[in-house]
């Protein structure tokens, strides 16, 4: 079941990653297209002009960058908790939006995949239902996402991705989109793009006729059209079938002064034509008008047509003329068509025999150095290179290959570290050397949420005095609630009784009301912290992933860890105890290196034995502790396993402690209820003297 869940989470994570990378990238490389879509949505919500265009461009870049980055982070399992929550939040907003566009139909294309892939509103809704289901599953179990890059190196992926996508987006805004998914890409013959192939599906229409007779008005169709005694009033015609629509279907040019339709003339003209395209001159960037005028002069000298296509009013055209000294001919065309033709306002297109052979943003126009001879003899007179595979290769080489290289380097590093560990532990002489066991015998108390401050300090004092008077022959630790720590530290001789906390936060510091950080715990004088206790796993939903964070922070702050693991009664009945315990260790502590491992004490606490009075038999406990030692040996080598203290916890008392502690693999106990009275606790400590 667990394996199925992990597989499902990872499948969903890849679906989300691929979709977000694609949708984010196509938006990011076409910020102006995303801006136009945002404006469509704003208009549908009657919010047009609420934000100026420059602010919407920032929103467009941010949206593309957010989606792309979330996709990459999902793919590499970077910041799994935060990324999965953000993805779910984004999907919730998107899904709500698509429910609305599905019902109200305010926009025809959701714009999810820019111009790269058009979906109907129904298809978009379906897609988002699938994605939100995936996002929910992943957000439920983010820790199930397998990592490709170790935590320490993830920052490289984060910064590289965000920088890459923002730089790409700004570059595309400054020049033109790297990939052109619109029908006016380089190599397109506009006239051919407008043709309807023979036999293509025709649109169908249905007409209803409204007629009147003797003051009665009725509607008729062709099938039941009445006799001439009825007087005709009106006709309503609706399209019932869409029919084939050519990729270019609304391209038409009329001269601004005479209103003459010159579409055919422009598209069938042999030779070159420059088209300066500006959907609206009033918002066009006029900073490069000098370059435009030079190209116009060049065109004039070389007998090349130069037209400015715009959907602007005469007033705006006049203002542009005054501002830039433009002498070229202005023609009218549809605003949306012009926005589709080129993502720059203004932008320049070069036609040769009606085919688009070059496109330039106003920021990257051909310069006088490029215009030294007739166009036929110049590189710009040849079709620009617009090879999609070549551009894809550049994206792969500049983005995915470096990340793949990082992943491989990271995995190699992890692998060599593992090999080094293994070699250290396998040296031949280790086989012959009779080592003295280094591990400590430990009795640790866990007060849980018991005793107020005064009672706690009094008990600590009593234990301290008793053990100073009668030295234990094991290490003794008492783990107290947070508020006791600083005061208890004052009354303990920590050479005899060490102090520990029962928990610490999984965050370094900051706005986490009620939490206590590892650093704070350490600052009280405590040396240990209990992590992974079943009560915290169960009641406070501490997952393996959260515990891993806590383990790392505790160690980083110089605390030693009493790490608890153990199975439920059902799991033991199903004979899954080994599997459960192994998974708990693998999930939260087995990522540590051999050096860090020296600060770990394991406490095996079968959940069914905690506070229930049901103790595991000494054989059951011994069997499990031997198993734990064997998996520690597999991971860290035999020597490290021999040096690891492994405790038993669960209804341990003075009466059963001697029997439990007599087992070779049991190095002591983690004691709950029986640590709340000095005599009971001392009774267990004294079991080491028997
Ligand atoms: C514990 O909670 O760590 C524990 C072992 O409790 P008890 O001794 O009360 O079973």
Summarize the structure in words.
The protein is of the alpha/beta class and 690 residues long. It folds into three domains: 2-174, no CATH class; 190-378, Glutaredoxin, CATH 3.40.30.10; 442-689, TIM Barrel. The protein has 25 helices and 17 strands. The strands form three sheets. The chain has an eight-stranded parallel beta barrel with strand order 10-11-12-13-14-15-16-17, surrounded by six helices. Strands 4-7-6-5-8-9 form a six-stranded mixed beta sheet, sandwiched between helices. A hairpin with a 2-residue loop joins strand 1 and strand 2. Helix 1 crosses helix 5. The protein is elongated and about 115 Å long. It starts with a helix and ends in a 5-residue tail after the last helix. The structure holds phosphoenolpyruvate (PEP). Phosphoenolpyruvate is lined by residues 446, 605, 610-611, 649-652, 670-674.
Helices and strands in order:
Layout: H1 2-28, H2 31-44, H3 53-76, H4 80-104, H5 121-140, H6 154-174, H7 190-194, E1 204-213, E2 216-220, E3 231-241, E4 254-255, H8 263-268, E5 272-278, H9 289-301, E6 305-310, H10 314-324, E7 329-332, H11 335-341, E8 347-352, E9 355-361, H12 388-426, H13 428-432, E10 442-446, H14 453-469, E11 475-480, H15 482-491, E12 497-501, H16 518-523, E13 528-531, H17 534-539, H18 544-556, E14 560-565, H19 569-573, H20 577-588, H21 594-597, E15 600-604, H22 618-636, H23 638-643, E16 646-649, H24 657-661, E17 668-671, H25 678-685
Parallel strand pairs: 5-6, 6-7, 10-11, 10-17, 11-12, 12-13, 13-14, 14-15, 15-16, 16-17
Antiparallel strand pairs: 1-2, 1-3, 4-7, 5-8, 8-9
Helix pairs in contact: 1-3, 1-5, 2-3, 3-6, 4-5, 14-15, 14-25, 20-22
The structure holds phosphoenolpyruvate.
The site of phosphoenolpyruvate has 13 residues, from strand 17.
């Amino acid at each position: 079941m667990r394996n199925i869940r992990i597989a499902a989470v990872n499948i969903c994570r890849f679906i989300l990653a691929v979709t977000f990378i694609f949708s984010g990238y196509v938006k990011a490389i076409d910020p102006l297209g995303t801006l136009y879509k945002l404006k469509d949505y704003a208009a549908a919500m009657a919010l047009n002009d609420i934000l100026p265009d420059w602010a919407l461009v920032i929103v467009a870049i941010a949206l593309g960058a957010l989606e792309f980055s979330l996709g990459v982070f999902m793919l590499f399992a970077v910041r799994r908790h935060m990324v999965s929550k953000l993805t779910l939040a984004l999907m919730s907003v998107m899904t709500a939006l698509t429910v609305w566009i599905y019902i109200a139909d305010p926009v025809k294309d959701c714009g999810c995949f820019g111009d790269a892939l058009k979906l109907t509103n129904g298809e978009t809704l379906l897609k988002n239902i699938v994605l939100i289901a995936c996002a929910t599953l992943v957000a439920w179990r983010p820790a199930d996402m397998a990592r490709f890059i170790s935590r320490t190196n993830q920052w490289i992926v984060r910064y590289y991705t965000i920088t890459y996508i923002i730089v790409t987006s700004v570059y595309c805004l400054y020049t033109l989109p790297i990939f052109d998914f619109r029908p006016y890409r380089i190599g397109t013959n506009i006239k051919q793009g407008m043709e309807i192939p023979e036999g293509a599906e025709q649109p169908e229409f249905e007409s209803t006729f409204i007629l009147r007779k003797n003051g009665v008005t009725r509607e008729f169709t062709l099938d039941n059209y009445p006799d001439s005694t009825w007087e005709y009033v009106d006709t309503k015609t609706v399209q019932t079938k869409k029919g084939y629509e050519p990729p270019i279907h609304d391209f038409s040019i009329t001269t601004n002064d005479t209103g003459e339709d010159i579409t055919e003339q422009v598209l069938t003209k042999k030779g070159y034509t420059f088209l300066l395209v500006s959907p609206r001159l009033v918002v066009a960037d006029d900073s490069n008008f000098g370059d435009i005028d030079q190209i116009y002069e060049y065109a004039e000298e070389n007998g090349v047509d130069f037209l400015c296509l715009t959907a602007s009013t005469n007033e705006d055209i006049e203002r542009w003329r005054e501002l830039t000294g433009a002498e070229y001919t202005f023609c009218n065309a549809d605003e949306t068509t012009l926005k589709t033709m080129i993502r720059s306002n203004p932008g320049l297109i070069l036609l040769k025999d009606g085919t688009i052979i070059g496109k330039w943003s106003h920021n990257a126009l051909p310069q006088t150095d490029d215009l030294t001879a007739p166009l036929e003899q110049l590189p710009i007179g040849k079709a620009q290179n617009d090879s999609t595979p070549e551009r894809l290769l550049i994206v792969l080489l500049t983005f995915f290959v470096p990340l793949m290289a990082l992943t491989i380097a990271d995995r190699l590093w992890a692998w060599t570290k593992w090999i080094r560990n293994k070699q250290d532990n396998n040296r031949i002489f280790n086989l012959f050397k009779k080592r003295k066991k280094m591990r400590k015998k430990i009795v640790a108390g866990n007060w849980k949420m018991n005793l107020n401050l005064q009672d706690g300090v009094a008990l600590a004092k009593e234990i301290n005095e008793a053990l100073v008077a009668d030295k234990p022959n094991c290490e003794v630790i008492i783990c107290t609630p947070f508020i006791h720590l600083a005061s208890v530290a004052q009354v303990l001789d920590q050479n005899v009784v060490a102090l520990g906390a029962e928990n610490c936060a999984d965050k370094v510091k900051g706005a986490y009301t009620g939490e206590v950080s590892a650093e704070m715990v350490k600052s009280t004088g405590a040396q240990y912290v209990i992590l992974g206790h079943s009560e915290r796993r169960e009641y406070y939903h501490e997952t393996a992933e959260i515990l891993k964070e806590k383990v790392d922070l505790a160690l980083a702050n110089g605390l030693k860890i009493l790490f608890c693991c153990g199975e439920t009664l059902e799991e033991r009945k199903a004979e899954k105890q080994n599997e459960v315990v192994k998974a708990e260790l693998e999930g939260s502590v087995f990522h540590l290196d051999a050096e860090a491992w020296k600060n770990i004490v394991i406490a095996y606490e079968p959940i069914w034995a905690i506070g229930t009075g049901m103790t595991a038999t000494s054989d059951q406990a011994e069997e499990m502790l031997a198993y734990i030692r064997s998996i520690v040996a597999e991971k860290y080598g035999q020597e490290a396993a021999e040096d690891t203290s492994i405790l038993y916890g669960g209804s341990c008392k003075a009466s059963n402690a001697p029997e439990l502690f007599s087992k070779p693999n049991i190095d002591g106990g983690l004691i709950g209820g029986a640590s709340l009275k000095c005599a009971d606790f001392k009774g267990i400590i004294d079991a080491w003297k028997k």
